[in-house]
């Protein structure tokens, strides 16, 4: 059987092509090849001349529910190209909304959940056909032990499972863990020891956790922070999704990472916004992160059943019906954009160790003589006075902004 594996033309993936790898399709590819089927991976909408065979089956992956239109586009395109092939859609959207997926996309079948046999296979990276990819995706767990109402991880995998070992799966020097809750694995210490050995033997360079680390587990087992560092993890993230008054607990998590020799500007805090916590309280959380000098990874909330998202960050404003706005907590289009803008400016200040942000300086609109004179000033007060005298814009992260 000839099987065409398709990653739809999702937005932004091209920019992160080496980091955004359709791992589910690569596992399926390994499974099919093991069973003597021919497989080919299409990333986007490819012309027939680019595909080496006429497929009998086309397996299309889906990601976020709000990217459903790209899945529909892929189904319709490949239906026109190969009218006799069976088209199956799997992945996140297909699992969370199977009936909608089948009716909306017009596919022949929907695959719900994970393909258990394919999950046992080492991904077939050769399907990517790109020699410069030095990054490998690993799942050491399946599901999540928590039941956060805004997250679909525990709905996709209703039971939580953790691998005892991953050492035999490692084939690349850089590893990104796609676990929803890496630290919840009961065998996590053994896995961290495996990674430490691989790093010492120079078989891996570094590791990263795409979804960050469960801060509650980190507090219960603080020694894990140092083990993460020795295992080669970089850019650790913890989540602060709830109220401002949780800040002592978040600060304790940050201190554990700092004690493990992670740097301030390497640490990041996941922040869910446009949800239950109103803008004003989110701003207080943002200013706390400025006080701690750690960056923020912003996560704009969309409901799990939201099948579209036409938010455009390049626009100054949009109508509220174009994307989801959590009006119940007082969010508006303006507040969504202002919070994202504040986070961006604050992160720039932290990365470059600046006391404030200036669009004029960022876009290099000031002359070299002004920049050099500005750099020669010693105190923050002198610099602010200088900017005010020349009427150059500046923004102070520790102030409220709306």
Describe it for me?
β12, α11 (279-292) and β13 form a beta-alpha-beta unit. A five-stranded parallel beta sheet has the order 2-1-3-4-5, sandwiched between helices. The protein has a three-stranded parallel beta sheet with strand order 6-9-10, with no helix packed on it. The chain has helices at 23-34, 68-81, 92-96, 98-105, 116-119, 153-156, 188-200, 215-220, 224-230, 247-259, 279-292, 333-351, 359-362, 368-376, 380-389, and strands spanning 2-7, 38-43, 57-62, 86-91, 109-110, 135-138, 141-142, 161-162, 174-177, 206-209, 237-239, 268-273, 295-300. The chain is globular and about 70 Å long. The protein folds into three domains: 2-116, 3-Layer(aba) Sandwich (Rossmann fold), CATH 3.40.50.280; 131-351; 356-402, no CATH class. The chain has 402 residues and is of the alpha/beta class.
Give a short overview.
The chain has 402 residues and is of the alpha/beta class. Helix content is 35%, strand content 14%.
Question: Which key phrases capture this entry?
Answer:
402 residues, alpha/beta, Rossmann fold, three-stranded parallel beta sheet, 15 helices, 14% strand, globular
């Amino acid at each position: 059987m000839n099987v065409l594996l398709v990653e739809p033309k999702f937005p932004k993936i091209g920019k992160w092509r080496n980091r955004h790898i359709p791992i589910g399709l690569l596992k399926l590819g390994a499974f099919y090849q093991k069973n003597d089927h021919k497989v080919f991976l299409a990333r986007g909408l490819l012309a027939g001349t680019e595909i080496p065979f006429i497929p009998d089956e086309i397996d299309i992956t889906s990601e976020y529910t709000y990217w459903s239109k790209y899945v529909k586009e892929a189904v319709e395109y490949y239906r026109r190209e190969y009218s006799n092939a069976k088209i199956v859609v799997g992945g996140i959207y297909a699992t969370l909304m199977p009936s909608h997926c089948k009716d909306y996309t017009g596919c022949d079948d929907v695959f719900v959940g994970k393909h258990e046999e394919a999950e046992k296979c080492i991904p077939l990276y050769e399907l990517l056909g790109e020699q410069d990819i030095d990054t490998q995706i690993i799942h050491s767990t399946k599901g999540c032990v928590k039941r956060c109402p805004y997250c679909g991880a525990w709905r996709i995998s209703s039971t939580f499972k953790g691998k005892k070992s991953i050492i035999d799966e490692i084939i690349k020097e850089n590893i990104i863990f796609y676990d929803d809750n890496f630290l919840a694995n009961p065998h996590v210490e053994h896995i961290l020891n495996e990674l430490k050995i691989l790093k010492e033997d120079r078989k891996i360079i570094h590791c990263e956790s795409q979804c960050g680390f469960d801060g509650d587990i980190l507090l219960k087992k603080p020694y894990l922070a140092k083990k993460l560092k020795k295992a080669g993890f970089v850019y650790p993230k913890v989540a602060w999704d709830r109220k401002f008054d949780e800040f002592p607990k978040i600060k304790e998590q940050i201190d554990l990472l700092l004690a493990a020799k992670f740097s301030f500007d390497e640490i990041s805090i996941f922040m869910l916004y446009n949800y239950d916590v109103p803008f004003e309280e989110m701003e207080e959380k943002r200013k706390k992160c400025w006080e701690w000098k750690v960056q923020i990874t912003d996560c704009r909330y969309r409901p799990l059943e939201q099948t579209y998202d036409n938010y455009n960050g390049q626009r100054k404003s949009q109508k509220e019906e174009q994307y989801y706005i959590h009006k119940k907590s007082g969010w508006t289009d303006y507040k969504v954009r202002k919070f994202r803008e504040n986070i961006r400016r604050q992160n720039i200040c932290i990365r470059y160790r600046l006391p404030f942000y200036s669009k004029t300086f960022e876009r290099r609109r000031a002359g070299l003589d002004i920049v050099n004179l500005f750099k020669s000033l010693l105190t923050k007060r002198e610099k602010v006075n200088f900017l005010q005298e020349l009427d150059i814009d500046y923004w102070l992260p520790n102030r409220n902004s709306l």
